[in-house]
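Field reference: sequence -> structure
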Amino acid sequence: MKQNKGPLLFLTIFTIILFKNNQAIHDAILSSCELFITRLFPSLFPMMVLSDLFIYFDLPGLLCKWIGPVFQRVFHTSPYGAFAFFISSFSGSPANAYTIKNLHEQGYLSVTEASHVLAFSFFSNPLFLYAMLSLIFPNDLLTVLKLILLPYVINLLLGFCLRKKTIILQNMQPNPREDFGVFFSKSIKKAMNTLLFILGTVTIFFILNQILNPCHIPIFSGIFEISQGLNTLVNADISYKLKEILAIFFISFGGFSIHLQIKGILSDTKISYKTFFLYRIYQSILSVLFICVI
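Structure field:
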């Protein structure tokens, strides 16, 4: 069987580029580590552990009793989907995939329900967005709030319009609880493993952006990694309206770095990444159209 030498050639060229751009790659790695330490780890780690503890003590059940039935009728998923959406709305991605995966593994969401909820529960951390957007649009709180809140409106709209009427809500029985000490230590270990994977993913896309986009053109930076894309808009010499359009596109699509992180988190489950990806295309189109007309 003839071996395909294309990947080997690509990896050889990539290795040569790494050595030729050693200082730039070094800076990209340090920048990704700084982003992880100062922004991602402080916001993601507590929420990952807390979401596990919420599920362990069945605190989602309290939330489900109040808004769960409404969520069930509107979006055709179990009441526990309301908890997943609630956590996702302020913890951001990829913590949403982590929480929804845990709900599925604990027996609160079926595969179909988890796939649907994940698809319309995609948000960036609002505190992170506020800090970045305030730099892009200084002294314009209205635009900042519009760009932060629009994803919530679009996601709810998609969740309602693309719900599957044929969904069969399963009354799945949650798995029996293990000893709290064992569960807590496993939760920390699981969160740290996931965060190390996120750090590696972010670092890879920082390096790719440095190599393939040395001029840091905003559209390419944002497609690679959302924080880089938003950061390039701060001093970008483009119109105000174009900054709005690019910002909402980066926020809605999320960047391939986030997509790879979510795909990795879901890798040992049957939760659909394809559905998640299609919803991001729909969200990006609707969000850009909305910004263009207002």
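Note: The longest helix spans residues 22-56.
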